[in-house]
Every structure is written in structure tokens, then in C-alpha cells.
Fold this protein.
Amino acid sequence: MPRPDWYDAPECETQEKGAPKFCKRSEPGEGTERSCAFDGARVVLMPITDAIHLVHGPIACAGNSWDNRGARSSGSELYRRGFTTELLHNDVVFGGEAKLERAIVDLAGRYAGEAKAVFVYATCVSAMTGDDLEATCRRAAARVPIPVIPVNAPGFVGDKNIGNRLAGELLLEHVIGTAEPATTTPYDVNLIGEYNIAGDLWGMRPLFARAGIRILSCISGDARFEDLRYAHRARLNVIICSKSLTNLARKMKKRFGIPWLEESFYGMTDTARALRDMARELDLAHGGPGDRTVRDRVEALLAEEEARCTARIAPYRARLEGKRAVLFTGGVKTWSMVHALRELGVEVLAAGTQNSTLEDFHRMKGLLHRDARIIEDTSTAGLLGIMREKRPDLMVAGGKTKFLALKTLTPFLDINHGRAHPYAGYEGMVTFARQLDLTVNSPIWPALRAPAPQDLPEAEREAARARAAGHAAALLAEDLSASRVKPPAKAATVNPQKNSPALGATLAYLGVDGMLGLLHGAQGCSTFIRLQLSRHFKESIALNCTAMSEDAAIFGGWENLKRGLARVVEKFRPRVVGVMTSGLTETMGDDVRSAIAQFRAEHPEHAGVPVVWASTADYMGSLEEGYAAAVEALVGTLAERGDPIPGQVNLLPGAHLTPADVEELALLVRSFGLEPVVAPDLSRALDGHVDEEVSPLSTGGVSLEELRRAGRSVATLYFGDSLARAASRLEARLGIPSYGFTSATGLAEVDRLVAVLSAISGRPVPEAQRRARSRLADAMLDSHYQLGGKKVAVALESDLLKTLVPFLAGMGCEVTAALAATRTRGLDALPAARVDVGDLEDLEDAARGVDLLVANSNARQAAARLGVKAHLRAGLPVFDRLGAHQRVWAGYRGTMNLVFEVANLFQASAGEAQRLAHN
């Protein structure tokens, strides 16, 4: 294949004496490989949105590259489809021309109406086998009603820049000048090398419109094929950060007489310069030296926009001032980024690029401080050397370098095609400042840089144990009267997020093997509880009730309770019976304790069946309070005194933990050589397993023997502030020290737990937990871009609220509202702008304008009314999603799962939301 006439021009010389490594051709094994000509051609042509882009080659070229760039479209999405002939062994042996022709004809027919052209890309294999791309495209073009254009840029002919230039030549040969626009103006311009990455073009269009400048053709961001055909009628070509397309501008000047400029719209300095230069050229071309039509409009625009932009970036600049950066971009945008960073007070310590010439090298060197380094060795080893030498506060680079920076715990901002945010123009400058601030000042960095539990000295591990030991006392001493969280003042609750305390007690009792819960109340109460728990866990729920009637409500329910106890013991033969009360029987004043005592006296034959009782009046709290009362009753009634069992600890999991969470925490405790008595243990009862025999009792939870043995543990670990009283009761009655944790989700929170377990056990942190912590750190690095700056409203029971609000804030989210189901201690410290006790109607008011709603399934209607696309189901009930009880959010592994789950919610709708906002 002959080289084009520009291939050996000085701007393409790659072996000049004194040129840095990044200006030279890639050497085998050097580790500085750029992309290939095939990729470079695709970069230029793929943003043509209404064309079929067909790759003629084996699967690798299309399979590895389709839809991998951030070019946005306001119309057709055809360009995002991956089309390939997928050459196989026989095609390589016998030739692929016939297969290519069939593919072109087939695709043009299937996408008739939407497709306005077909671009056919040669690859290394099809070029080596000798397939005649041009001839095949001519034959196919005779059979279809749209242009078929060969793109002869196989990867081996050169690097990415070569492919860019080949694509420019191809547009000039086959597309530009092949049709006439309906109208022209004296102020028509072409943008060359602007690919609308993340919507950059859309940020520039309003500026042009206000200056009276019309974009005739954009080559090729958000481009329609027809628009490109008109490009020869523009009055000015503006090359946007794409040196490789300079030859296209030169040839258009020679062929059509169109002058050209090279400009950038990144940063205020370059945006102002670009607009002034364009205005000058357009005025000169239209009216001569005295014409100031466009220049006057531009000056008025700049006066307004620069003042407004300066004011808007000021808060970000205040936080970024003095930070130091390494800049490593894809090419000409390097100097634009130098200016933009300077405008934010950021010093550039080192800069480099993989796709520039010697001229670019000298220009870059002239922009930087004399002590700044030019990055000549752009391999991984070279970049790591720069990072170690300069120790920057951040790195601004392309996606290939992203994870190198993150693995060294260096904040990173993607400036190339993989980014999700537009940075062009004044609005883009504000976005750039905001994203840089979110990146550099994300709360994840202090957490990630803090010493891991295994690196803490023994004294600090002991201090962590002391803090956990004092958790209950500190919590229970909090003065609620001084809290900023006030009870609700509304006359009526609308769309309650609360569940009944009896439901919470039922949940706790279900975690005991062989237990049957007995609700002392009307039969509707137990029906609703079974329904709610069945919808959430997708399980049969073991629960009976005393079936209070009208007579019993008037004359007292003692007899109903005693008969109910006798019947369930005789009929179902439970190992334990758990009694909870309802609003009805509590209002009546039934003395449950005395009724149970009378039952014992009247039925000595049932003396071997323990009866545990928890007061769960409907008007006293919510699910969480009822669950905590049942746990306190279980351990307070059944735990027996005895000699301590070395290594045995009690694990009291809160109602906010899923069965899978409980299992994860038990595994974490066991990894330190400790054996937990989990009370209650939903991980063995409501974990979704299938038993050989179905029982009317709860099965698989903590056994009666284990509960009795809990009195001989050497420590109690409780998770969730609501269980502080249960742990304190064990400590007061049996002398078992307790260690409390508000949350077991989040890097810092799990670190505290691990440090305490290490101190209690006297063992070092196991390798498995170190590895899990490292994976969580990596997940936080990968995902903090999606979470940073997002607005969130949360409505949950208090323990889960106190788990998820700090987690979200710790990942950089702005929690605008946190609504607790009940007023409890510990809410004041939540990192939320507003903390209230409220219902789901209050959530609708508090969640206006948020990006994410965190609540149970009952909030789905609120999310729909508010137009909030991201709704993280949490708490109970979750009935419109499967597997809620299998979700793990506790421990290092669980926190990693939660990080990814929330990030994916944001990521799923980001591109579509941007497109809809533009349209």
C-alpha cells in the first residue's frame, strides 16, 4: 500500500535527533506502545452517528474495540453497534472478499433508512491476505443505495496518529464536497478533531450561537454523514486539539480556500483565545480589517462568562490551591490542561504524552516550570518512576494510566475518551473544577491511607478495644432532649416506613432453632406479620397467635395466652416458645409474666419447654425496637452462668443485618480463632436453604444449648446500637464484657472491628482478611468517581440508617436528608444535612433533586413520582427484588459489594441522562 504524500513530512518525522522517547516509533518490548492506525482511523470516523462501521477482519479488531469511546450522539445510536465480517480460518485461506460484499449488502438492507453510509475498515489480516477492499466496496456500492467507503488503514501501517491522518484523507476524497448545504452564512465554521467526548461539543455550541457563529460541520463529533458533505462551504476551519488532522485543514485550504486555526476550548484562557481568534478571522473574511461584528459579540460574551466562571470555580480553587499534578494526556490537549490547572491553582510537576511530535515537545517544555519534568519514558516503569520521584497530589491523564495512578493511591482524573463529563467551554471548566475537587478531596483518601489493622501497634489495638467496650455506656448516656432530631409534628403519618415491634420480635425468634413465636393479640396481626416477612424472605414463616376475640378483649386475655401456650407446646412440640405482645394486649394491660407463671403451675408436664417473653407494644417503637427486646429476652432468660469457655464469644447481630451479613460476620470472627454463639442466627434459619422436611417451627438457627452456653462466653460483640441494652444486660448479670459497633460496613468501621478481634484473640490479622481489605480498597478507588458529589436521601430504621449514611458520605456522596423510622440515640452524629424522624411522604419532600434514594420497596412510588432513577432497596420489606436476604454488605467483602452496587446504579443511567438533558 503506497504511503500518502504527507507521510514523510517534517511533522511526522519520528527519528529527529534530540527527540524524546515519546516522539519516536514504538520499539519492541519498550512498553511505550501507542495504539495502531486502525484505531486512529476509527477514532476519527466512528463518531459519525448514522453510518454503519464495518470491520473487515477476524474478531479481535472489532471485538476488542467496538463502543469503547465516550463520543456522544444527540440522534442515531447506529455508530455504537459493532459490525464485523469476523473472518475465520477458511476466509483467511480462500479470501474474504465475497463474505465482505455479502455483509455490506445485508447490513445496508437491514438498516435501510437509518444508515446513510457504510465505512469498511481494513485490518492487518485482511490486508495481508490481499483482499481488495476498494474493489469490493465498489461492487457492493452498485448494489446498495448508500455510499460504501473503504478505510484502508490496517494496524501495521503506523501508530494512531497515522490512522487519524488516513481517515482525514479519506473524508476529503470520498465525503467532503459531495453535496451542497441548503443555506450558508458568512460565519460558518468547521470543527476538525472534535469528537464530542462526554458531550464536549454540546458545551461549545451555546458559546458559538451567542457569538453568531454557526457550526456547519463537526469532524466528527455528533456528526451526521450529510453534514460532513457540506464541509467545503465553511468560511473557517478550526482544529480542536488534534494535530494529526492538520493535513486535512491544509488540503482544504488548498482545494477550497478555507483558512484554518488550531485552538482549544479547555480552560478559560484557551476558550477566550479561541473565540477571539475565530472572531478575528471571520470578521476579516467577511468585512475586512474594520469589521468588528463577531469580535464585539465575543467580547461581550467573554466579559459575562469569564466573571461568572471565575466566581463559580472559586470554591473549588480554594480547595485545590497548591496541589501538585502529573499531566499525561493523549496529545495536543496537554498545554490546554496546563492552563486550566493553573487557573485552579494546581502546579504541574511533570507532563508528557504518547502522541506528539518534536514541535509539541518543545512547546510543552516552554509552558512548564523550569523544575518540571518532561515524561520521556512513557512505559509503566517510567511513569511509576515519575510518581515515586514527584509524589504528586493528583494525576490528570488518559484511561490507560488510570489504574496505575489509583494503585499508588494517587487521585486521578480521566481527560481522554473514557471520561463521563464534558470539560470544554466555560460550563466545562466548572465541571472540570468540580470533578478535580471531588477526585482530590474525596473522603476515601484519608480512609485508604490510614494504617490497616495489622499495621497498628498493640497499644492502638487495645485502645480500639477500650472504645468498643465503652460503646454501650456512651450511647445509653446520650441526652435525647438535646438532640437536633425531633419527633414528627404531623397530625397523620402518610406512607409509613415503620414496621411493628411485634414483627421485629418475630424476626428475632425465627433465628432460634425449634422455636415457635406466639403473638398475644388478634389474629390479623400475625397474618400481616407473616405476609410481610414472607414477601421479603420468600419463606414460610413460623408464627402463631392467641386469636384474641371481642370477649377476651373485654374480660382479659390471660386465658387465651395460657391456652395458646398449652396448644402450641402440645401440638407443635417446640424447643422454645417466644411470646410477644401487640398493641391490643398491652393496652388492655394483660400481665404476661403472671400468665406465663400460671401456665407453668397448671402444666408441669411442659416444664422442659422454656418460654421467652418480650414486650412489643405497637405504639412503642418499630421493628428494630421489637427485635432488640426479643434479643434481650433471649439472652437474658436463657444464658446460664458457668466457667468461661476459652475462645467463645457471643455475636448479637442487629435487625438491619441480612442472614448473609450475619454469616459473613461469623466467618470474620472465626478467622481469628474465636467461636461465636450467634443469637439470633438468621444465617442458619432464613438463608433460603431447602430442608428435607418442612417444619411448622423455625429451623436451623441458634440452638437452645448454644443460647444456654452463651452465659459462659468471654466476650459479647454486638452490631447495631439497638442491641446495647441486650449486651449490657449480659454484662451486668454474668460479667461478660461487651464490645459495641454501630456499623460493620465501611473501611474504617470494619478496620475497628478487626482491630478489636485481634486484641481479644491475641492473634494477628489473618491473610484472608488482609486480602479482603485490599480488594475493598481497590473497589473504592474504582468506584469513587461514580459516587463523588451525588446527592442522596435515605429513609430507614435507625441502625441501618446509621450504617449507610456514614458509608455514603465516606464515599463522597452528599446526604441531603436522613429519615429515621424512630427517634433513637446516635442520630445526631450522622453526616447528613438534615436528620429527621419521618414517613415516606416526608421522604418525597426531602428527596427532591437527589440522584439516589435509599429505602425499602415501599418507596418505589416516591422514587417514580420524583423521577429518581436510582433506588437502592434496603431494609425491610424488599419484595420487588429477589435475593435481598442473600445480599452481603457487612465486613470487607460486603462493603465491597455495596460499593459496586451503588456505583452501578449511578453508572447505569449516566449516559442516557446526559443525552436526554442535551435533547
